[in-house]
Amino acid sequence: MDINVFMTLNDFILINTKLLEISNLNLYRSESYDHPYIKVDINSPSSWSPGTSKSLSLLAGKHEDEGPILNKKQINIPRSQRIGFVDIKYGGEDEYAIGASHYGADTSLTAKIAKKELHKILKKHAHANVKNTNGDIVKNHYWTDSALASGKNWHRFIGSGEYKHKNINPGYRPTYDSEKLLQLQPKNKDIT
């Protein structure tokens, strides 16, 4: 699974809460490489909060698969122990731009179920495909009405520090067909 979505924090919380509820998955959070993964409540907004650490990690997985990660530091968990988990990253937002939130996973059964359910949710609550600055259509990228309404640029990654000024530059944008669709038929904002 390799899916990117341009969305606001509110969309991120709503879409992911719905995804985990439908998929019957738990959420595990590690604040940084030196912090252990803990199971958190998917219905608590603080569980989804982006925090201040660039190494924040959110993993979605089944209760029965949590043994290799639960209460273990992020830095001590190799990729092989993350099989069966979906990595969820919030793209971030500043005054100029929205970053792409990312869903990544292996080919496990858990990932296949989560991918199927995520596609159903995105079909209902987001628009498919974006254009890059060259005008090329990029697949596996989605955007929400709130991201468009923000008026901000969309970037794969949000720049910070000495690179923050790059967020002012244009980035990805809806495809022409998607812009026309939005005018005619906005997506349902009710994610329930």
Give a summary of the structure in a few sentences:
With 192 residues, this protein is α+β, with helices and mostly antiparallel strands.
Indicate the topology:
Layout: E1 2-6, H1 9-23, E2 26-30, E3 38-40, H2 45-48, E4 57-61, E5 86-89, E6 97-105, H3 109-125, E7 127-131, E8 137-143, H4 145-149, E9 153-155, E10 173-174, H5 176-184
Helix pairs in contact: 1-3
Q: What characteristics describe this protein?
A:
192 residues; alpha+beta; ten-stranded mixed beta sheet; 5 helices; 26% helix; 25% strand; globular
What features would you describe in this structure?
With 192 residues, the protein is α+β, with helices and mostly antiparallel strands. The protein has one domain (2-184). The protein is built from five helices and ten strands. Strands 1, 2, 3, 4, 5, 6, 7, 8, 9 and 10 form a ten-stranded mixed β-sheet that branches. α1 crosses α3. The longest helix has 17 residues, at 109-125. The radius of gyration is 17 Å and the shape is globular. The model has no long low-confidence stretch (mean pLDDT 89).
